[in-house]
Amino acid sequence: MDLLLEGLAAILRLDVLAALVAGSVGGVVIGAIPGVGPAVAIAIILPATFALDPIVGLTLLLGIYGASMYGGAIPAILINTPGTPVNALTTYDGYPLTRNHESRRALSLAYSASFVGGIFSVLCLIALSPVIAKVAPLFGSRDIFMAALLGLVLVVIAHRGHSLAAGMLVCFGVFLNTVGLESINYSKRYAFDQSWLFSGFNLIVVLLGLFALSQAFLLLNRRDERKPLPEFEGNLFSGLKELFEHKRVAGTSSAFGVVMGIIPGVGEFLAQFFSYTLAQKLSRRPELFGKGSPEGLIASEAANNAVPAAAMIPLLALGIPGEALTAMMLSVFYVHNIIPGPALFQTRPEFLISLYAALFLVNVLILVFLLTTTRTILHVVRVPSRFLGVSILMLSFVGVYSLRNSMIDCAICAVFGLLGYWLKRLQLPIVPIILGMVLGGIMEQKFRSSLARVDTPLDFIDRPVSGTIFAIIVIALVAHFAALYYRRRHPEASHG
């Protein structure tokens, strides 16, 4: 009880409440602006959070992460343009409802489904915490090494159609992490006697380049178009009541989001895809999907908003981020010497309670804010692309320079910005590079600490946990290559 009160007291501090409001409101606005998205915003804000208390910084970032998906539904429904990439499926049924003069109904359904998904995932996180606390100490260095390897494998497999490119980019990310002085013997690796390479590539510099600068370059290359304000008709509160008519869809979609959020390297896209497909198969009116089905809208929004809190489970329990945004948050933990993993549940339980409470309040704040201010938020849809591009460019360089007052960091950031721009133009994924850097670092650290207890390679999988994870890796790879072989032998099935 004392721990609960201590954790709740921390969340009621003025600075934490300010971060809650700023993250929730700012995330909605960022999500509603097509072309920005949470990754860009978090990458820009990340350097500033290092000076804040850890609960304040993480509350701000989590608010932006969760709220942007709520906000991304607004342009997806009203102008058929997803505010964030994960709101793409929302356009399938949201925009047809707008064309049928039911825009407020669509928005209300999206907000309600997002709220249910968000709250459900927070409750799952809270319920799983005691289980995680008991299971986590079973994970030794070899187990965490294998779990990180599983994360890399799943990252590659999750990028269907780009598996080879994703695999190469993961390896590139792992390589980037090896550049500089290694931490044991301080030997130089791939530095070529260049002093600016001795400290390696800073994760935040690479993040800002790949996500923020690349997006700025894309926006600067777009032609500004004056977008008319969309029509806005209906009752915003109607969806709250209508959602109860589709409880099964909301529940199963939220559950899919939680499961996909827990699995490293999967995330919102597969959660949405599976939820939407299942909802269509189980629906009494599947012919409405893609033409304004409320079930389709609920399935896509509940699934993607259930992911953020669920993605914190592998991060908190094992210190293994499942995707780019939790990888960014991992750096906040490290800066403040809070190491996610098995020991965190024993050493800082009050911190975890504060984090759970923050996630819960973020969803409540977002829903209240959206139900009262949606008409005002519509104006951000009209922000010119080039103005956004210039703003992101300026803020990114300010953030990079503030890290170490280094112009070399700015130059490195610019190079990675160009790389990210090139990858985006080729429609290749960027996330594998970041996860390769983060998970590669974890793998190297755990590999070194395991060597004292390892005589042969088979000793890495002689423990129950590491052996089970290795079996999952083998099954996942076999299933992936079997699917590739089947699609090659039956190309008509992949198009059908």
Structure, described:
It is built from 21 helices and 2 strands. With 496 residues, the protein is mainly alpha-helical. The protein has one domain. A two-stranded antiparallel sheet has the order 1-2.
In short:
This protein has 496 residues and is an all-alpha fold.
Determine the strand fraction and express it as a percent band. under 5%
> Uncertain spans, ≥5 residues at pLDDT below 50?
none
**In order across it, which strands form the biggest sheet?**
1-2
**What overall form do the CA principal axes indicate?**
globular
Rg (CA only)? 22 Å
The CA-CA distance between the termini, in Å, is 56 Å
Overall tally of domains: 1
Helix share bin: over 70%
Q: Which structural class matches the secondary elements? A: mainly alpha
Order of helices and strands: HHHHHHHHEEHHHHHHHHHHHHH
Largest sheet: 2 strands, antiparallel
Name the average pLDDT. 81
Count of strand segments: 2
So how many helices?
Answer: 21
